[in-house]
Amino acid sequence: MEGKIHLGLDHELYGEGYRDPFIQDENKLSITEIIPRILQERHFLTITEESLLKEIEEEEEGEREEGRDGDDDLTDSEGNGEASRVAGSEDDKIENEGLKGDEELKTGSSINTYENFQVQKQELSKYISTALNETSLSLDFVSLLISSVKPNIGKTTMSPHLTKTVPLGSLNSDKLEVADPHRSEETSSIGQGLKLESLEKITSSFRNSSLRLNEQVLKEHTYWENIHSVLQSGEVLYKTRDPTTGFRSIGVKYGFGDSGSSYHDPGLAVLKRDSRDGMVSLLPVISSGTGGIKVADKVYKYIRVKILSKIDDDYMLTGQSIFNSSNIIQSGGSFGDISILNDIEKIRFFLFEEDLFSQLTREAKTLINYNVSIISNKIIIEVNDNIIEIESVIYDENNEDELNNLYQNINKESSMNNGKAQQILIFLKLMLCCFYKYNLNLRQGVPTARNKWKLANSHPLILRPLLGYLRHEINFKNILYIVENITSAYKSEGVEDAAVKISSKQYSTLQPISETKKVQDIFEKSTKSPTSEITILLRNNSKKNVLKIDLTLSASETFCNLMVNISIMKYENEKLEDGVKLLESNVSEIYDVEECLQWVISNFMKDATS
């Protein structure tokens, strides 16, 4: 055909190494690549029947023209004929390859399947992931390298995993400057210097690590030695957490909950380790109300007892208890003087003082009718011409003058009741221990409804026994004075044939039970009402009659109200046999006792003189 030139390219002549990567082999294109190209070339969206017929006719006419051109080429010269044969063979080859491609398109290949597409898709995603990982590693490497110079910038660009596992600044770089890099001697010496420097750094690092480990071992040894000493001293340890740091720690129970105490502060403390030297310090804690614990703000207070006596119509201080510092110092014994043991004993002592004053305040509220009042942190008891003050005082170890009463013991009058004040303080502490024992017995007994009610509603007997015994002593002296006055008045009248004999026994319940058991339980004595006895014997010599009057003084359940039992017997002889009871009565006022005695004694004396 004239005006047309057909060019052919045999890819096999050049080989795979010389193939242009931008030239695509149409015979090796997949279906997903061929279909878009056909749609773009054919314009299937605007195709019609007439256009298809016209295209078929043009293709047939072109084939006929190519056939005629082939016949004309055979009659040309030898060179042209050879070129035609070459071109013809090339066209045949291209045509054969086209037919082969069409057959592959018709039969279908594994390359053009959907499974192959999924495989290639997975491989592509794998390559992308690998590229992202490599990029992330490169970024982490650069960030870690920068962190030694600029920590904030390195931390913001590092991955979270690398931030948790590798510390900042652990990767570094140095710039090595060589004067003449071509000189081997200088390069060798620089290398040896770097090795020596590295060895020195490693040696220094190991030495510092060894020192730190040695210090840590010493701290651990000190800590566990203190814990062991606390355990060996008989303290109760338990597992807890430090409220300041939240770390696990060991606690100690220094309170009296296991002894029967019902105080709101159970007495718990954390044995806190000092990070500097490993010593153990005491950190008191209390319940936070939400199931946890918090640090307790402790203010140490102790109880002081004062006695004011009426002198010249004015009350003056005549006695005061002394604070004994030995109560808060615990000797280390075989463990030496360990401060943690002293701290435990100190805080336990002041906890007992707090509990005691709390129980005294609780009990004093029910004794207002008996001249007991509460003013701020002080309980005031008025008994006859004396005033007893029980005060809670803040502990100040630097003020030795106040602790030892140096400013008060200036003369004999100001210190004459010091012993009595100290005995009152000891009595109050013993009574609190008695209350602990009572509660502990209820807890250890059978858990019946009665025991539970007693445990919840029992009131302490601490202040009432003290007040009851003081009032009982005054009442006993007053009644004995009345008896002596009545009998002495009849003696002064000159009745010689009547004889009077008076005997008394104060605190008869505190007397020894028997010769074999002379010591009685102090708790049992103190929780019983005080009892005293007065016996009066009146003898009539003329009629040989004897009148016996027994007065038994006791107190009510509150220990403060007076109860007097009067029993009068009349006997016909001095052997006190076959007597007749004339009177049996109980009175609660001293005035009634006086009237009864006057009436009975006066009648008996009249019979004796008549």
From TrEMBL:
Its main location: nucleus. GO terms for molecular function: transcription coregulator activity. Residues 53-107 are annotated as: Disordered. One of its GO terms (biological process) is regulation of transcription by RNA polymerase II. The keyword Transcription regulation applies. It is found in: Nucleus. This is Mediator of RNA polymerase II transcription subunit 17. It comes from [Candida] railenensis. The lineage of its organism: Eukaryota, Fungi, Dikarya, Ascomycota, Saccharomycotina.
